[in-house]
Specification:
With 169 residues, the chain is mainly α. The protein contains 7 helices and 4 strands.
């Protein structure tokens, strides 16, 4: 799928890639959802399918925070508090911990809800607001949203499918 360059394309990418991810997550056996045998977000680490869903929730919540600050005219801090862009490994671990008390199904429900909130936020914005000017460095608001929603959904789907194939060998 090409990189979105409009609001409608961004909404389509998020919806399409989330649906494909959701179908892949449907194939995860409940008894394996917390098994940390999937390649992690940093070299030499491992995570569970539930950790992967937690990671996606964390990034989506962060994007919603950016959009809320932007709407309120506040300074948007793109890094999570206490984390730099060079500390994404640590940020992934934080997201795993943030949602570790929730079951796989609870986290999947939470991810679906946060994705719907993201769609609502995007729907309130114009093409010009999303793609008309840089928002973070050279990246537009739409591109920053896509970097942290539909792209990770697609990546996560690939990880889940690869992991499931390894489980069936």
């Amino acid at each position: 799928m090409p990189i979105p360059t409009s609001k409608s394309e961004l909404l389509g990418a998020i919806t399409d890639r989330f649906a494909k991810l959701d179908r892949a997550l449907d194939a995860v056996p409940a008894e394996l959802a917390d098994e940390k045998t999937m390649e992690g977000h940093a070299k030499g680490t491992f995570m569970s399918p539930n950790n992967l869903v937690s990671y996606l929730i964390g990034w989506n919540v962060l994007v919603l925070k950016w959009l809320e600050h932007d709407r309120n005219g506040e300074t948007v801090i793109f890094q999570e508090v206490r984390y730099k862009w060079s500390q994404l490994r640590e940020l992934a671990q934080k997201f795993y911990r943030d949602y570790s008390e929730h079951s796989f199904d609870e986290n999947r429900d939470q991810l679906a809800r946060v994705k719907e909130r993201l769609i609502a936020e995007i729907s309130e914005r114009t093409d010009d607001e999303l793609y008309g000017s840089p928002w973070h460095g050279k990246w537009t608001k739409g591109r920053m949203i896509q970097f942290n929603s539909s792209s990770p959904y697609e990546n996560a789907r690939g990880r889940i499918r690869k992991w499931l194939k390894q489980k069936t060998l």
